[in-house]
């Protein structure tokens, strides 16, 4: 019923409608635990009840798979509204630090207002990069966007559900920038939709939750009129591209459940890479 109402409501009134629908739950969550930073459900865009769970899940991946330490400098590319940042507030020490940037101004404003005042070593920046699906008014382009950080500044970099929404030219530049700002010997965690024999077979069999079928440049997409809605890359292509910028994939790749495989770690495929040398 709610979905029908949403389709009938003009776009300008949809934010007000969402606020009203989620108000009871937001009030309940606020009264239940005032000590926990959790964005209201009206702005978490579908992650809803999974917001806290997914954040803590990935914090464990950062520590267990990439050896994140409390004193590390961390970069969160596509930080959104703090899903990964919030659990890290209880892990990173005052000697460490967190920097996150995102294309959504509203997400950054929320994090700056609700997280940074409590944790001064947590910094949030708006990157006004164009993305047809997420930021159509962006004035910068991903293929020539320079991260606003010095060379070799970070001990750990991560991207969750970012390259799954970016086309090859933009991905290539971001990988170059990740390598530039990452210290030699340090690690990054990156999620993808990876195409290999197993995932391709599951897609062709109609088992996958994502039906990648349209070829665009060096990737496959789902929607022709909205290419950045979801993007998949061939496994060999990804490994080769990372290697060109001094980023070596640490095997094994941690494959995800998105294509409905039997053995998986998370939803998307996760790669842990280490910077072996400078560009």
Query: In CATH, what is the homologous superfamily?
Result: Vaccinia Virus protein VP39
Summarize the amount of helix as a percent range.
25-40%
The major pleated sheet works out as: 7 strands, mixed
In percent terms, what proportion of residues is strand? Answer: 15-25%
Give the class-level CATH name.
Answer: Alpha Beta
Structural class: alpha/beta
- What is the alpha-carbon Rg in Å? 19 Å
* N→C terminal distance: 54 Å
Number of helices: 8
The CATH architecture? 3-Layer(aba) Sandwich
* Number of discrete domains: 1
Overall geometry comes to globular
**H-E string:** HHHEHEHEEHEEHEEEHEE
Describe this entry's structure for a reader:
The chain is α/β, with parallel strands linked by helices. The protein has a single domain, classed as Vaccinia Virus protein VP39 (Rossmann fold). 32% of the residues lie in helices and 22% in strands. The protein has helices spanning 2-8, 14-32, 51-66, 85-88, 105-114, 168-181, 197-204, 235-244; strands spanning 73-77, 97-102, 122-126, 154-159, 182-192, 194-195, 214-216, 219-221, 231-234, 247-254, 269-275. Strands 3-2-1-4-5-11-10 form a seven-stranded mixed β-sheet, sandwiched between helices. The chain has a four-stranded mixed β-sheet with strand order 6-9-8-7. It starts with a helix and ends with a strand.
